Amino acid sequence: MDLLEKIEKEAIEGKPCSIDDALDIAQKYSLDQICDAADHVRQARMGDEIDTCSIINARSGKCSEDCKWCAQSRFHSTGCEEYDIVDIEDLREMVTINTDKGVKRFSLVTSGRKIAPADIDRFCDLIREARKISPIKLCASMGLLGVNEMKKLKEAGVSRYHCNLETSSSFFPTLCSTHSTADKLATIKAAQEAGLEVCSGGIIGMGETLRQRLELAQEARDAGVVSIPVNILNPIPGTPLEKQELIAEKDVILTIALFRLIAPDCNIRFAGGRKRMSKDSTKRILKGGLNGSIVGDMLTTLGNDINQDRELFESNGFKW
């Protein structure tokens, strides 16, 4: 049995691939061979159902953090729309649309280091309103919260908390100085202690190495997350990364396939930036380890039409 066959067999049994082995097969095997192995693991561990979610920007702009990739940081001049809290009618409309289209999850995402204690109840009221009108599963991404705040979200109806690690702990300090990977991991732990599932991934194409991308997958897996979203950097004018060279499509495909081998039991989710991928590359990814996707628009960039996504996923063998 050669190395890739061994890694595939072990991942199908639930044993993660090591980073060193992942880098080794990236050198020794073709992209198609690695994607085929990853897809076999996806089918065995996750099945054929596509795990879909949609997000709403529940608070936009004026963020105190200096993340180099982000349009919403107050340190950058991007022309990002700014508002304090989403209008309840807009929330109701978005929840209803996504429910009617069969999207499985809906998340309220806010800008800022964390929601202030005085505002938690306001957002919990929004969550309760969404719970009244729809059975859709609810998620929240509201910054570096503690256990008690997480418990309030859970009591209001949230079942999963989102806190991206963004990149590996070895690379993160070059991109953000106002908080750390340790802060993120503490937030993930707080959510889990409150009884919430956790979704945590990051952005690729910010200048990191392949090893550092794989470190992100390993660190998220080891933190016990159930979902790892993969965003592709969309260089936004006015941010420090506005001139960052675009990551090659083949590197996006390879990264997602290797994520599957490193985290065989996590939902590997395509997120922001996928709109720029070619049709052929997208199809290869859908047969290369992926089993989830954010659908609809992203926070500050346009996404993909939900109806078109459903057709795309179903035509590639997924169940909506």
Describe this structure in words.
- This protein is of the alpha/beta class and 320 residues long.
- It has a single domain, classed as TIM Barrel, CATH 3.20.20.
- The chain contains 11 helices and 9 strands.
- It has helices spanning 3-12, 19-28, 31-46, 88-100, 117-133, 147-156, 181-193, 210-222, 249-262, 279-286, 306-315, and strands spanning 51-59, 105-110, 137-141, 158-162, 197-199, 202-204, 227-232, 267-270, 292-294.
- A 9-stranded parallel β-sheet has the order 5-4-3-2-1-9-8-7-6, covered by helices on one side.
- Strand 2 (105-110), helix 5 (117-133) and strand 3 form a beta-alpha-beta unit.
- Helix 4 (88-100) crosses helix 5, helix 6 (147-156) crosses helix 7 and helix 9 (249-262) runs parallel beside helix 10 (279-286).
- The model is unreliable at 298-302 (pLDDT under 50).
Summarize the structure.
This protein has 320 residues and is α/β, with parallel strands linked by helices. Helix content is 42%, strand content 14%.
Topology diagram in text:
Blueprint: H1 3-12, H2 19-28, H3 31-46, E1 51-59, H4 88-100, E2 105-110, H5 117-133, E3 137-141, H6 147-156, E4 158-162, H7 181-193, E5 197-199, E6 202-204, H8 210-222, E7 227-232, H9 249-262, E8 267-270, H10 279-286, E9 292-294, H11 306-315
Parallel strand pairs: 1-2, 1-9, 2-3, 3-4, 4-5, 6-7, 7-8, 8-9
Helix pairs in contact: 1-3, 2-8, 3-9, 4-5, 5-6, 6-7, 8-9, 9-10
